[in-house]
Amino acid sequence: MDQHPLTPLLAPRSLIVLTQPEGQRSPQAQRLLAALKAQRYLGELAVADVQRSGTLAELARTRADLALLALPPDELPGGVELAARMGCRAALALGGGIKGEAATQLRDIAAREGLHLLGPNTLGLQNPALGLNASVLGPLAKPGSLALVSQSGALTATLLDWAAGNNVGFSQVVSVGPHSPVDVAELLMVLADDPRTHSIVLHVEAVVQARAFMSALRVAASVKPVLVLKTGRRDPRRDSAQTHSAVLAERDAVFDAALRRVGAVRVDSFVELFAAARVLGSPLAVGRTVGRRLALVSNGGGPGVLAADQAERVGLSLSRWVDVPQPPEGAVDFATPVQALQNDTDADAVLVVHAPLPGADPEASAQALVALRPQLAKPLLTCWLGEGSAEAARATLGEVGIPSFRTPESAVSAFAHLAAYHANQRLLQQTPYPMGASAPADVAGARLLVDNVLAQRRTVLTEMESKALLAAFHIPVTATLRARSAHEAMMIATQIGFPVALKIDAEGVTHKSDVDGVVLGLRDAAAVRDAYDALLARVRHTCPGVPVHGATVQPMAGQRHARELHIGLKHEPPFGPVIVFGAGGTEVELMADVAMELPPLNRFLAQQLVQRARVARALGAWRGAAPVAMDALEALLLRVSEMACELPQLREMDINPVLADERGVVAVDARIVLAPEVQAPGSHGHQHLAIRPYPADVAQWLSLRDGTLCTLRAIRPDDAPLLQALVASLSPESRYNRFAATLTELSPAMLARFTLIDYDREMALVAVRAAAPDGSEPERIVGVSRYTLNPGGRSAEFALLVSDAFSGQGLGKRLMESLIALAREQGLARLDGLVLCKNSAMLKLVRALGFSVKPFDEDEDFKFVSKPLGP
Q1: Which residue has the higher pLDDT, 381 or 3?
Q2: 716 and 769 share a domain?
Q3: pLDDT per residue over 415-436, tens digit each?
Q4: Are both 777 and 846 inside the same structural domain?
Q5: Helix (H) or strand (E) holding 392
Q6: Cβ neighbours of residue 315 under 8 Å, at least 6 residues apart?
């Protein structure tokens, strides 16, 4: 639809304040009314006393987009019902102190009445462009292109106060309470399509539904920068961890991994937040990939050293440093080195630092860069130190889109966030399959093993069970056999060959090395016999009362120069499983070398995971050893990702050590912790993951009427060129029928929006005709059908596009039938759409598919079509 369902909430054309009689209003209600009247609101504003007799009959004739409920907590349920009866499409329940049960009641009423409700426990919203201050957050912010969504009303007010003093404007400001039906995820989806919003600032205290949060954040970050300020870093649960992975994977670091994966950037303070927003909002910062190499141009050594030191602290590379001499008086010639650095392949961006030396003219120096601005291709950041004339120079630079800062440190940190944004965008564009490796795993056998352990009311697998589970996913493991006596240990060792290792097999022993429960390098039968008896006696003395079943015998791994690695998994609510990688061995926690990534992985994501760990430096040629076989290591990570996807019962896992050398990798020891997984009614596969894998299972063959064979599958990010070619091949009439606009091609933002989708919120099916074997015809997308969920997730809006060259082949019908089947499988109740009245072919198709066709009240050029998707 042209207008988002939440537009009446965020950009209402009319609103009504439902409050108590004058003289009985709360201080908060009085502040709201004062805020609304402090500036001219461009829509219609009415105030109504909910206790006046005859109010309902009168208000029924006063329709409004948005109802502002400035009422005591016990009157809010009646206020929500009243707003619905008035025909309001949205409501804002102002105020706090509403607990869970009362908040649930408000949510239920709003859902029953079909009302979009923001609140309770919110301080309101602002839309500066409309002159709307429906809040008690303070004065109306100045208009701008930055949207702010915050889970804390107090922090929202603080951010607005700071922004007012630093000339920062907003397109939208929303304070979201903890129990609001309209939550952060829904607001992100609106702001992703808002033309006034160029970047989004998000403050998060807690994430409850990670799948929805990640989904919306991914959509928003694919089209505009999203900066996240997360408060609350402490993790109180680390002491209960049963594996190294659970200790190493701190909750806050998992949140960082989640943000990286969806293309967002995390900041640590609101000053840093606005500095990063200033850089990411610069025209020079978009449209090109930016790395981590910064060139520095300065007229003073001291400030330059500060910038260089900060670059080292935040992990940037200072590729060039040009020291520009200060003339006796007047402007510093920054333009010449800045222009030269545009062609320097070792510099991704340029930072100019101006120190207020004697004779310096800050304004004239800034004007020289302003004149150079049209010729610049690389991001340019500036730091004009000082106040007075330096303040005017910073303003001059900002007016032409050149970010300027007061200190070298803040400028360098802002560039670090720009580099992180572009790095995270590469991660965002990865759409991995649930299975990363070629040979199919024995998933059924693995699930049977897990079910058997849980049926015995156990949660910790033995070493043999853990290795059997790894082997089911084709992860190389050392052979392991259990011995119940010294004699059995001798026989097993003799059969598998010396040297061997003995490891204690005892319930409740989390880490064998901690209780001296491992003996290595046993080279004959007598040594095995003696070591077995000593091992059991030692552990029984160290851990009295612990059931000791015997020991496992396994051959010693023969890799002389192997690196010891640690690969693991931790289930971190609400994000689900997270994969852990780093240096391994007995001192794994002491080394604390850990990198993390959320599954599912593909090979690129696996490579990035390895490179983020400190041990990555030792995986090449190292101390006379050949480089590690990286293909084998990446394949192992992909198999761990597959385990995380296919076994939702996994809670913790250590594969430590993994021995890696030039010949491959092998898991020497493993520990796995399980928990029963309760599947929610009506839920679909992979619900335990924060990121839904690419739906490879929807692929099928399509035969058209003329015999052309096409592949029908879900769209992927790398389909962008093919989709652009399809749009370019259409007639002007076909393009207008689909997009209701006279475009000739899709903008980069539209291409990203159409191809980089979240399969939980959207589905786009493409019909692909393969390239001709002789190369005479390239691969082509010849049709696309898609749906996008409406707020609430019960219905969706659909669209269809078919190549003119394949019209009349039945392709549109097949695409729609497949889309309807997937929407029904997803549990949607209805598909809706808008069709141009003159698009007779499309209207004929939807009628044949069982859609109802009605006039569209908001635009007479369209028909509203709808199809229930009941069983």
Answers
A1: 381
A2: yes
A3: 999 999 988 888 887 876 655 4
A4: yes
A5: helix 389-399
A6: 292, 416
789 beta partners: 796
pLDDT at 513 over 90: no
pLDDT tens per residue, range 611-665: 999 999 999 987 778 999 999 999 999 999 999 999 999 999 999 999 999 999 9
Within a domain: 44: no
**CATH value at residue 587:** 3.30.470.20
At 3 the pLDDT is 66
Asked if the model's pLDDT at residue 521 lies above 70, the reply is yes
Q: Are residues 550 and 567 in the same domain?
A: no
One domain, residues 508 and 586: no
- Structural domain boundaries enclosing 626: 563-674
* Total tally of structural domains belonging to the chain: 4
Residue 586 lies in a domain: yes
Alpha-carbon distance of 47 to 18, in angstroms, equals: 6
Q: Exposure string (b/e) for 635-655, b if CB count within 10 Å is 16 or more? A: bbbbbbbbbbbbbbbbbbbbb
8 Å CB contact between 390 and 397: no
* Segments in 647-769 forming alpha helices (H): 720-729, 732-739, 748-755
Phi-psi sector, 748: left (phi>0), alpha (psi -120 to 50), beta: alpha
Q: Are residues 709 and 856 in the same domain?
A: yes
Q: 15-29, 231-245, 714-728: which has the minimum mean pLDDT?
A: 231-245
Checking 512-519 for CB contacts under 8 A at 24+ apart, the result is: 512/669, 513/586, 515/539, 515/542, 515/543, 516/542
Euclidean distance between CA atoms 504 and 482, whole angstroms:
10
CB-based burial of residue 606 (10 Å sphere; 0-12 exposed, 13-18 middle, 19+ buried)?
buried
Residue 556 neighbours by CB distance under 10 Å: 16
Q: Is residue 476 part of a domain?
A: no
Instruction: Please give, one letter per residue, the 3-state secondary structure of 214-244.
Output: HHHHHHHHCCCCEEEEECCCCCCCHHHCCCH
- Does residue 576 share a domain with residue 650? yes
What is the distance between the alpha carbons of residues 423 and 410, in angstroms, rounded to a whole number? 20
- Mean pLDDT for the stretch of residues 71-79: 92
DSSP β-bridge partners for residue 361: none
Burial per residue of 246-259, b for 16 or more beta-carbon CB atoms within 10 angstroms, e otherwise: bbbbbbebbbebbb
pLDDT in tens, 683-699: 556 889 998 888 988 99
Is residue 507 located within the same domain as residue 551? Answer: yes
- Last residue of one domain, picked from the residues 362, 391, 410: 410
To the nearest whole number, what is the mean pLDDT of the chain? 89
> In terms of domains, do 500 and 592 share one?
no
Whether 568 and 656 have beta carbons less than 8 Å apart is answered as yes
Q: Which two three-digit tokens encode residue 670?
A: 């493993």
pTM: 0.84
In a domain, 690, yes or no: no
Among the candidates 410, 427, 444, a domain finishes at: 410
